[in-house]
Amino acid sequence: MEPSADSRPAAGQESLGALLGGRGGAVDATLPPLAFVVGWLLFDESIWIGSAVALVVGLAIAGYRLSKGDRPRAVLLGMLGVCAAALVALYTGRAADFFLVQLLSNVASALAWLVSIVIGWPLLGVVVGTALGQRTRWRRDPELLRAYRLASWVWVGQYLVRIVVFSSLWWIDAVIALGVSRVALSWPLVALCVAVSGWVLFRVLPAGHPGIRHPRTPEQQVTPG
């Protein structure tokens, strides 16, 4: 039985949210930067102590996630990100540089999503297609491919928002504001992006399309004469 029009957007958004790590993954990513800012503030703006506090919090999160059965690779990557941020700040002696790795990561992500749209492999389709076990079948559906390309622009916009905010605050050395924006532009922005891109995706698909779970081949889209 084909999914109803009401249930299709929910299914697409659920797949995206799961692949992004959900609310828990986004919250985990914000705790070490917050710990850095708190340690930096409480101990006379010491980058060493702020970095140490961030690393301790990062290790605690990694241990908790591993005990819950999360993938070691994902946990390791998260911990490496905290270590890299701390090393950059310690090397430059500038507390705002703790957020430089995150800023550069968003620049790289924006470029990756943009390039994926241009070359016809929109990352939204790659992510959802992988989650649904479709491999590359979604690319053989021109209508679905077009919908994924248009919806992927929402994700480019998400990264551009972060780049503008983070770079502006980094430039003026606003460490506390960087910590606050790191939280505000994590899960809340991701949730908004999932909702808006899901709306665009299902809005663009024609009324008779069976939905993202059922890509159609070009032959299936030919209307009999």
TrEMBL record:
InterPro entries: UCP010219 (IPR016566). It comes from the Bacteria. The chain crosses the membrane at residues 47-67, 74-91, 111-132, 153-172, 184-205. It holds the Pfam family DUF3159. Keywords: Membrane, Transmembrane, Transmembrane helix. This is DUF3159 domain-containing protein.
